[in-house]
Amino acid sequence: MKIVNVNYGITLLKRVLFLLALLTGPTLLAQNFTLSVATTHETCPGNGSLQFSVQNAGTSVNYKVYLLPNSTTPVSNNSNTSVSGLQDGTYLVVATTIIDGNTVTSQQEAIINDNTTPLIFSEEWQLTPSFCNDGVITVVMQSGSPLLYEITAGPSTAPAQASDTFTGLPPGLYTIKATDSCGTAIVTSQQLGTTAPTILAMDAGLVGLLPACDQITVLNAITNLDPVNTDITYPFTAQVTMYPPGGGAPQVFTSDVYGLSDSALFGQTIPFYYGQDYSYDLLLTDTCGTQFMVNDVDVYGVFGVAATTVDLPCGFKQLKLVPGIYVPPVNITFTSVPEDFDPTLNPSYPNFGGEAIFGDEDHPLLEGTYNYTATDACGNTVNGVYVHIAPPPVVPGIVGTNTDCDENLGKLVGTITSRDIAEVIITEAPEGFEDLFGPLPYDGSSFIQPIEGDDDRLYMTGLPPGDYVIIFTDTCDEVYEPYEVTVPPYDVNQRTPRPRPDCQEGFATVAIGSGVSAVTITVAPPGSVTTPFDGSQYIDDEGNFTLDGLLPGTYTFEISDGCQSYTKTTNLVGYAITSSDISMTPHCGAFDISLYHVSNALAGLNFWLQREITPGNWGHPATGELFTGSYGPLNSVGLTNNSINYTLIYPPGNYRIVKVYRAFESGDIAMDKTCEEILYDFQYIDGVSILGVQSLTCTGVSGDVQINAIGVEPLIYTITHKNGDPFTIANGNNNAFTGLESAAYTVTVDDPCGNTGVLTFNMAEVPSLVNAYNAPNLITCDLDGDGTETFNLSSQDAYILNGQDTTNITLTYHASYADADSGVSPLPLSYTTGPTTIYARTEYNGTMTCHDISLFDIILNQSGEMNMEDFYYTCDGTELELIADPSYVSYLWSTGATTQSIFVTEAGEYKVTAINSQNCISEKTVQVFTTALPSISQITIQDWSETENVINVAVEASDASVQNFEYSIDGIHWQDENIFTGLEPGSYNVFVRDVYGCDWVSEKVFLLTYPKFFTPNGDGINETWRIKFASVAEPDLMVYIYDRYGKLITGFDARSIGWDGTLNDTNLPATDYWFVVRRQNGKEYRGHFSLLR
User: Fold this and answer.
1) I want to staple 688 with a disulfide (CB 3.0 to 4.6 A). Which of 310, 757, 968, 1084 is the partner?
2) How many domains is the chain built from?
3) Do 480 and 404 fall into the same domain?
4) How far is residue 1081's CA from residue 919's CA, in Å, rounded to a whole number?
């Protein structure tokens, strides 16, 4: 039996439990220490914040806040339970506390979103034009929610208000400011129009007809200067204040004025002081109460009669006498006139109610002096004189020209000033005229052309060159002196090349025309066209030769116009820009463009300003009319070169300046093309834009910063808050703040227009002076399979610098981190290597310690080799499938096909480019041959022997690229040669086949000969003698058999069974017999054979 000490066991258990508590207590407490992070998103620039709370913490907690991906330098490191002044981004918060002497941490990630809404005015405001100072402006925002609206300048102003609508406004240009809850303010200008007309009031003289001898009517007028958009509203009130001569009391006359929508003419009767100077004032008041004044209008009037003439047909005149400042009737008496002038032909003479006219078509005004006396009903008298001088005689005008190089026939064009032509008689003409038109004198009246609204003209073509005499008669029956005129012979008109710069810098264009039929360039500068160069294909239907894309230099052209050929030499100058100085200067609500651009492109030169209406689409800065390919005032604003284009009032946005000019285009019917070049692009911001904060020290924890902002200068920089508390540093127009502690700051930037930009930034978040940003890996294919390739490391510059100013930063590449950190052993930019890691170092110039490092990999993928034959053969007229290797993801054949295989029927070279899954390219070029299908054209034989017969096979020619045949006479044994020799007589099947197995053909051939004996003895063997196979091979063959004395025994054709050895049914003796065979081709064969019994 074993006795157990129970008390000891209990004590041991307690000790074990105590030890476990010591070991696990801190762990349990650490597991219960938790961090919670609350986020306040960014609603104003830089006003994001984080709030922290923990559970089961020790006596104190420290919070480190990192702006990822930077997890080494915290933007905040203290025990505060919140951090403010944060911009949008992803943050890592690490809370640290001490529990029972152990350091315990908890961490959380938090995202601050950019919930800011920028203030942007809409381009479509609600404007109610003013009529009687009752205009309305309603501000419309494209983005943002202002708290206050204010009119800061204009015909009237308005203090800051919550409403977005301003009422009771006169027309004019207003400056309007909008401010949001962040303190950001933007300013713009709006032109408030008017429906009220712009009125011009003026005096319009005196009415010549008096109401009475002591009264006169003064005329005045009002004119609407904008009749298209506005109408005059009536009635106007007119007040005329007349000031009598000698200083008498003024007299006032009032009336209502009515008229048309665009103008009104109205009169006012006032006392008349004959022959004395006095004046009046006019006051006009419209329906809105607006007044218009015309002051100190002179009034002076005396009786007078004006003499003038009225035109009659054929150059004759009438005399017209017009009285003024009078009361009718007017007595007009002539005291001296030319002989034969009779004023009584006017039945009203001598008393008239107004104007008096003397003379008509039958009695025109005579040359001479006319003296007259006139007296009106008021007894006022005036004497007058008019001298009429006859106009100079009219002379025809006619011109001869000749532009006909083919037949050398010209034309005559002529007119008679102020007269119409009635008849044209040609009395003299050069040799050849009568052959073309008829005998002289020749009536050319059929060549008179009536011209509507102008004088008739003579237009006569097809005239031989030489001197002509022509007699004209006009429609007033006036016959003119014979007119001499010459039609010249065709004058050689040589076309001169006209050069223009091309659209591309360094190139030129040229034009020659019109009427050109052929052009050859015989001399050209090196590298240009190959001479002699036939340019006839670049001549259009009108005979204009144009050619572009030419190198500058001296060219010689041989030119033909159908009548002549000649040579012209000219120097072509390529397009070149001498200087280009373009800048934009912003102002309040407008901007200026300084445009000074010099080049040798002058034809059709224009400079156009366009705004980006929607992404990638440009158009008119004001109307938004889109540019669709042809520049003009509807979709662009013209700019003046070599000057400053002032006060361009257009919306904010992206702008570009496009230079447009004309150059010649090769063979184009229109002869020229439009060249366009974007000279300058810029962003116009109507307000203040804070681009960001830049550290002036290596790290942003503390030190100096620079605020980068754009707007109308001078900009004023002010820090207004620190960690959310009021804190002021007024920096004036200096954008650099120095000696700042690590904290969150709010800065405002104000422009002189009233715009305000606001930004809150945390010093710890300000980027370092220099950064090395991540770049993508460099990936290429090992083209030659040697495991290395050459890489351009500078292609990574843009990624690593990411817009940093390269004038202050040096970028180098290294093979190891140690080299990059020390700044030693930089790699060449053209670097040959296999797969590796490259370390990029950016260093702020002048400091070794202020640098940053990033890395990227060089990856070398392998290119495959395509397993295809070099040569392929296909039968003529049939398809062949070319199949590329299947281990690729895309294919491109030289035919344009993108499949793995293609079907071809034509011979030639075919190339396939394939890309594998690693984006490496493999290429293979194969040659395809089409083989001919055999066709026997002729079989030539040499036979009539026992063992030396010959068969020669000829085949048809083919368009196939390859023609390889084999030949056989038994279908079993084949040979390359087409001739078979050493053949015995008999029947043969001749075979021809393609060596690639496309097809075969055959033809039966017979080699003939004669038997040397026959035995007609009745045993059924060799009973007859004949030419074997002749009935098939040569059915027209004939055989003649003779005895040894030359006697003809018999004859038979190829279809006969042959000779049986008899003559007239009698057996002939056994002996030798002779034969003659006349073959189908006309040849004869002779021989002998034996008859055996």
Assistant:
1) 757
2) 11
3) yes
4) 72
Question: Across-strand partners of 94?
Answer: 64, 107
Q: Which of 810, 842, 862 finishes a domain?
A: 862
Cβ pair 385, 430 in contact under 8 A: no
Neighbours of 565 (CB within 10 A): 12
Look at residue 898 and tell me if it is in a domain: no
Residues 816-839, mean pLDDT to the nearest whole number: 94
**pLDDT of amino acid 100:** 86
Q: Residue 132's closest CA among 174, 94, 184, 171?
A: 171
Torsion of CA 1057, 1062, 1064, 1069, to 10 degrees: 170
Please report the DSSP string for 1022-1083 in residue order: S-SB--TTHHHH-TT-EEEEE-TT--EEEEEETTS--B-SEETTEEPPSSEEEEEEE-TTS-
Q: Which residues contact 165 (CB under 8 A, 6 or more apart)?
A: 136, 137, 138, 139
pLDDT in tens, 393-446: 888 989 998 878 778 899 999 999 888 999 999 999 999 999 999 999 999 999
Same domain, 566 and 593: no
Cα dihedral: 312, 317, 323, 329 (round 10): -80
At 776 the pLDDT is 92
pLDDT band at 165; cut points 50, 70, 90: very high
Q: Would you call 26 helix, strand, or coil by DSSP?
A: helix
**Beta-carbon count within 10 A of 526 CB:** 6
CATH of the domain at 147: 2.60.40
- Cα 647 to chain centroid, rounded: 28
User: Which of residues 1007, 1040, 1070 is at a domain's end?
Assistant: 1007
Query: In Å, how far are 98, 109, 584, 1062 from 24, measured between CA atoms?
Result: 16, 28, 72, 143
The DSSP bridge partners found for residue 617 are 614
| Residue ranges with strand state E in 193-226 | 199-206, 215-224
Distance in angstroms (rounded) separating the CA atoms of residues 246 and 469: 74
- 974 domain-assigned: yes
Whether the ω angle into residue 514 lies within 30 degrees of 0, i.e. cis, is yes
273 sits in which H/E element: none
Of the candidates 421, 510, 519, the one whose C-alpha atom is nearest the C-alpha of residue 471 is 421
Residue numbers of the domain that contains 667: 577-684
- Chain segment 752-791, per-residue pLDDT in tens: 988 999 999 988 778 778 888 889 999 888 877 788 999 9
Q: Are residues 602 and 653 in the same domain?
A: yes
Q: Beta strand 1084-1091 with 1013-1014: parallel, antiparallel or unpaired?
A: parallel
Average pLDDT over residues 86-105: 91
Asked if residue 89 and residue 46 are part of one domain, the reply reads yes
DSSP state of 536: G
Residue 10 backbone phi and psi in degrees, to 5 = -65, -40
Residues 208 and 259 in one domain: yes
Q: Enumerate residues 6+ apart whose C-beta is below 8 A from 1044.
A: 1071, 1072, 1073, 1074
With the CA atoms of 1053, 1055, 1060 and 1064 taken in that order, what torsion angle do they form, in degrees rounded to the nearest 10?
A: -60
Residue of 667, 595, 604, 607 lying closest to 637 (CA atoms): 607
- Domain-embedded: residue 883: no
Q: Is residue 893 part of a domain?
A: no
Which whole number is the average pLDDT over 1007-1018?
90
| Partners of 852 in beta bridges | 842
Q: What is the pLDDT of residues 53-94, one digit of tens each?
A: 999 998 889 898 988 988 877 788 888 899 888 889 999 999
